[in-house]
Design brief:
heterodimer; A: about 100 residues; three-stranded antiparallel β-sheet; disordered N terminus; B: about 260 residues; mainly alpha
């Protein structure tokens, strides 16, 4: 499966039953482990009680929160720059969105 | 040359991989969290006086971190020669520098704690199982066994260090905590490189799994013993220890080793 490119997929092409994707302005939350221009795409995970936003996914490798300018949906590709990992957004058996590693 | 997209997630996978394994990326990344530090911590971070038994346990712990970091330094340096492609060689060069820095800041921390001769102290307090792990890791590197050596170093050793340092940082004195925090940030890249490299190769050559399973069976007992020894010296309660190995177990599970 080729993951969708979130920049190239138009909002209007959302799947059946799904509305247009919400967009998000990302601010720099002080994640200093990647070069400055990429910092807004990441933030630290605060542990089990840290609720992820609809545009966020937890990297399963290094436990950093990966952020997107758009609401994430199954099939989206995101990258964790902190551990250099490519991730695919999937719906878990429990119905939540989660990131899986793509090697 | 195509302009880089504004959204990092829009990069093509090959372009992403080349970028994050580059020297430029490494340099821009580490500048963000190492700039202004002295011996791995902020110059004005206070030194908290420790009771002698606590100081002694910390010295033992740091000595063993030095053993692990020396293994990683020698391992990463040796792996450059046998890495299969240019981006991997460049990445390993950056990892080698990271490991050298770790060894240096940990040695400095020992000096700050009053250890006059860190080399002699490390030798005297080194864990036998960690030394054995180091010996086996370097034998894999010398044998030019790329995948087994990457598995041993960047998955097993780095995952252990990542977990132990994270746990230790939560209860450490301020200076030690800052030193460990800087190391943890480097370790994220190292574990990611190992898991991704192995994941790709296992996908292409599933028969390698059998070979790596044998490596794991040989090294796991040494790693688990080292975990236990580290936990003893940090003073981690036994009930919290299973949690510690979780990130390592999750990594090997993702790679298909159960």
């Amino acid at each position: 499966m080729t993951p969708a490119d979130p920049l190239l997929e138009p909002d209007e092409q959302a799947g059946a039953g799904e509305g247009p994707r919400r967009r998000f302005m990302l601010d720099d939350q002080g994640f200093d482990e990647v070069p400055k221009k990429y910092r807004r795409f990441y933030r630290r995970w605060k542990g089990e009680g840290d609720a992820l936003g609809p545009n966020e996914a937890l990297c399963p490798v290094c436990k950093v929160v990966v952020r997107s300018t758009r609401e994430l949906r199954p099939g989206d590709r995101v990258y964790c720059m902190a551990c250099m990992t490519r991730l695919l957004i999937v719906r878990s058996a429990a119905g939540h969105l989660e990131a899986r590693v793509v090697y | 040359m195509a302009q880089e997209p504004l959204d990092v997630h829009a990069l093509e996978p090959d372009a992403f991989r080349e970028k994050v394994q580059s020297f430029d990326f490494w340099f821009d990344s580490v500048q963000g969290y190492l700039d202004g530090l002295e011996h791995g911590h902020r110059p004005d971070t206070p030194e908290v006086a420790l009771a002698e038994p606590e100081r002694d346990r910390l010295v033992t712990t740091l000595c063993n971190y030095c053993v692990g970091e020396t293994a990683a330094l020698e391992g990463a340096g040796g792996l450059i020669q046998i890495a299969p492609n240019r981006p991997s060689k460049i990445f390993l060069a950056t990892q080698t520098v990271d490991e050298g820095r770790h060894l240096e800041v940990l040695s400095w921390r020992l000096r700050e704690l009053g250890v006059a001769d860190p080399e002699a102290e490390i030798e005297a307090r080194a864990s036998r199982s960690l030394l054995e792990f180091k010996r086996k890791l370097l034998a894999l590197v010398r044998g030019r066994d790329w995948l087994a050596a990457v598995f041993a170093q960047n998955v097993i050793l780095e995952a252990m260090e990542f977990s132990v340092f994270q746990l230790h940082a939560q209860s450490a004195d301020p200076r030690t905590r800052e030193v460990l925090a800087g190391i943890i940030k480097d370790e994220r890249r190292h574990i990611g490189f190992g898991e991704n490299e192995l994941g790709r190769r296992l996908r292409e050559m599933p028969l390698l799994r059998e070979r790596l399973t044998a490596v794991r069976e040989e090294l796991d007992p040494l790693v688990l013993r080292s975990f236990e020894e580290a936990m003893d010296s940090i003073g981690t309660p036994r009930e919290e220890r299973p949690e510690l190995g979780r990130s390592y177990l999750q990594a090997v599970e993702r790679l298909g080793f159960v």
